[in-house]
Amino acid sequence: MSLGEPLVELQAAPAGLDVPVREVAILDPEDPATAATGELVLAIGARGRAALPALRAAGRARAAAVAVKLDAPGQADALREAATEAGVALLSVRRETRWEHLDALARAIISGPDAPETAEHNAGDLFSLAQTTAVLTGGIVSIEDTSSRVLAYSRSADSDEVDDLRRLSILGWQGPEPYLSKLREWGVFQHLRSSDSVIAVEPHPELGLRRRLAIGIRAGAQPLGTIWVQEGSRPLAPQAEQALVGAARVAAAQLVRRRRELSADVRLTQTLLTGLLEGSTGPQSLATHLGLHPQRPATVLGYAAVGGDTARADVTGLISVHTAARHRSALLAPIDSRIYVLLPDLPAALPVATVRGWAQEVVDAARDHLGVQLRAAIGSTVPGLARVPESRAQADRILDAMGRGGVMPEVAALSDVQAEVLVSETLALLQERPELRDPRLAALTDYDARHGTRLAESVLAWLDALGEVRVAAQVLHIHPNTLRYRVRRAEQLTGIDLAQPQQRLLAMLQLRLPSA
């Protein structure tokens, strides 16, 4: 089984181990349990017996396998029985494993050595290279980028041979910081950045580390990553260092090619996506380039940082990963200070609450992991890609209203905040068009500024309380008689008759401006 330890464990394979996997599908817990022939279904959020509908649907569709996390060991029995009855393989996923990593790994393995020459093919090549290197060195291999993120690794038949660093790196898709700190302290990373030679890291049983060899992957003076070979229960092969030098050269060629292909493809995708969002490019080019259905529903999500620019690599990456885990065709484009996510090919009846939940996950993760406060706006669901600019425009309206202040949720669709958005847009119009304002109200705020009074504030509080003097006085922390005096004084100074509904309405709006 290519996924292998320590990510998954095979619980049942009623059709044997030779069932081909053609695609990976992510099943959201709020979506109907569906599958397609040959799919590996990742049952996200459906722990234990909650995955039974997914298993039955996968069996009916002749899917290849279902992967699920277990809450307790005893749950495996019921799921194995259901999987055997449905005729579909069952994989139990370790609780620490991140779904987006398992998804990326599975897709890379499926691409395999016979896949077309694409970026996904290069990822598959790296897994093949890791396995070949493991055979030549007699060790356990992982290939990482310059940030210690795991790109590919070899399979190990015996999980007892894997040390803590290897296990935690694969589970977290990145080397854990305490171990990385030790490697930095020992000068390992300095050597890998500056030398083409192999470095040996001696075993440290007290840290759970076995002996390993490492070599930097370089293109000239440019570091591209690292290959690590961990020694298992037997010593590494005598020619392990020589094999590692050759593997680093092959990996360098693959990573350089991968970067070039990804760079060109990403630039084209970004150009087409930005053009579609801005309405300057039609939908057909993007649909053809990515194989999207131009007539299926789509929605745009907009993200903006509170008091800052969201166009940062860490925020962009976080949004990308979380959204891709929920919708496989999601596309992301930073434009000015905002980040937009296009969700194409949506189910016809996808609830807004589901999309709101996805966006809330991103906002929560940005706050918890990056210390960044994000606002998220959900644009309208449109019937096809041609109307994506409408969805983006609606998301912008919501973000604009959020940016003007007031009490607003972190994540909202227009139906959640329609009144707030309309009032905000009306205030923006009054701000931009002085001729639409009542000069008597402007004179009232000028009077306050010159004399240090609070007449305008008092009138607005009284209006907001619908004329309830005691309620407004409590808000202002003044005596009701003081409030009555201020309202009368404001009417005397300006000549405004607050008994007139139209004047009350205009005052409620104009007095909310930063400077009326």
Summarize the topology.
Blueprint: E1 8-12, E2 23-27, E3 39-43, H1 52-60, E4 65-69, H2 75-86, E5 89-93, H3 99-111, H4 119-137, E6 140-145, E7 150-153, H5 164-172, H6 177-185, H7 188-194, E8 199-201, E9 212-219, E10 222-230, H8 240-278, H9 283-290, E11 299-305, H10 313-326, E12 331-335, E13 338-343, H11 352-370, E14 374-378, H12 388-403, E15 411-413, H13 418-432, H14 439-451, H15 455-464, H16 469-476, H17 480-494, H18 501-510
Parallel strand pairs: 2-3, 3-4, 4-5, 14-15
Antiparallel strand pairs: 1-5, 6-7, 6-10, 8-9, 9-10, 11-13, 11-14, 12-13
Keywords:
Alpha-Beta Plaits; PucR family transcriptional regulator; Beta-Lactamase; 516 residues; PucR_C-HTH_dom; 16% strand; 47% helix; 5-stranded mixed beta sheet; alpha/beta; Glucose Oxidase, domain 1
Summarize the structure.
By secondary structure, the protein is an alpha/beta fold. Helices cover 47% and strands 16% of the residues. Helix 4 (119-137) packs antiparallel against helix 8 (240-278) and helix 10 (313-326) runs antiparallel to helix 11 (352-370).
Give a written overview of the molecule.
Residues 455-513 form the PucR C-terminal helix-turn-helix domain. InterPro entries: CdaR-like_regulators (IPR051448), CdaR_GGDEF (IPR041522), PucR_C-HTH_dom (IPR025736), PucR_C-HTH_sf (IPR042070). This protein is α/β, with parallel strands linked by helices. It has helices at 52-60, 75-86, 99-111, 119-137, 164-172, 177-185, 188-194, 240-278, 283-290, 313-326, 352-370, 388-403, 418-432, 439-451, 455-464, 469-476, 480-494, 501-510; strands at residues 8-12, 23-27, 39-43, 65-69, 89-93, 140-145, 150-153, 199-201, 212-219, 222-230, 299-305, 331-335, 338-343, 374-378, 411-413. 37% of the residues are buried. α15 crosses α17 (480-494) and α16 packs across α17 (480-494). The protein has a 5-stranded mixed β-sheet with strand order 1-5-4-3-2, sandwiched between helices. It has 18 helices and 15 strands. 47% of the residues lie in helices and 16% in strands. It folds into 4 domains: 8-111, Glucose Oxidase, domain 1; 120-259, Beta-Lactamase, CATH 3.30.450; 289-429, Reverse transcriptase/Diguanylate cyclase domain (Alpha-Beta Plaits, 2-Layer Sandwich), CATH 3.30.70.270; 437-512, Orthogonal Bundle (Arc Repressor Mutant, subunit A), CATH 1.10.10.2840.
